[in-house]
Amino acid sequence: FFFSDLAIKTLQSNTKMHYLRVMLTSLVAILLLHGNFSFDLSPYPINRQNYIVDRQVVLKKIALIPFIWSQGITLAEAKVNPNDAFAGLVKARVELETASNTFLPKKNYKGMREYFLTSSNMEKYEENANVLLASKQLDAESKKDIGTIRRYGVGADVIIMYGGLKSEIGEENEAPDYSAVKKALKLTMNSLDEVIAICRSNGF
Fold first, then answer.
1. Furthest C-alpha separation in the chain
2. Helices (DSSP H) in 45-202: which residue ranges?
3. In angstroms, how far is CA 181 from the centroid of its own chain?
4. Would you say 181 and 81 are in contact if contact means Cβ atoms under 8 Å apart?
5. Does the model's pTM come out above 0.70?
6. Is 6 exposed, middle or buried (0-12, 13-18, 19+ CB in 10 A)?
7. Whole-angstrom Cα distance, residue 109 to residue 126?
8. Phi, psi torsion values for 117, nearest 5 degrees
9. Tens of pLDDT along the chain (204 residues)?
């Protein structure tokens, strides 16, 4: 394939914006997990030490950063069957439970990090969720309730909190905070439970 200089520069720019957006999402999650900001999964704001932060405000800030899905990701998602995508969410929930029960008590953060990478279902959450959102089996209201990283919904909570978890146990963090890891796991599981419940109510 032939790409003009402009096309290549655009692609490079979009890739940089993608990573910038991922980094911002992780940063927001870290701040929330370490208690620098109040965060509530309900739509009602909380006032703490002169900060007023609610779920919609956080997601609005993230959504302001331009983001364009790559064609490769779109094609990959199109090949996934919705039932298989839902099965992936259920397996992802098992991964979170295993991480919480097996690796967290021993503070084996390296093992937890490697477990998520090799098991891969949590890593594929967004891909599988997008397949479900594109399917006809979910009704419009359910799709709205789940949402994406650019639209309010419990699905965005999964992405944000899992991003915070990965940042906390990442190789760059030499001293992960046990309470932050525990909190991230719990919040990710709670949000994923809601996504799974919505899907099941639609016949999955």
1. 55
2. 55-63, 71-78, 82-98, 109-119, 125-134, 140-146, 154-168, 178-201
3. 15
4. no
5. no
6. exposed
7. 23
8. -70, -40
9. 333 444 334 444 444 444 455 555 555 555 555 554 444 444 444 343 433 344 554 444 444 444 333 333 344 445 789 999 999 999 999 999 999 999 999 999 999 999 999 999 999 999 999 999 999 999 999 999 999 877 778 999 999 999 999 999 999 999 999 999 999 999 999 999 999 999 999 999
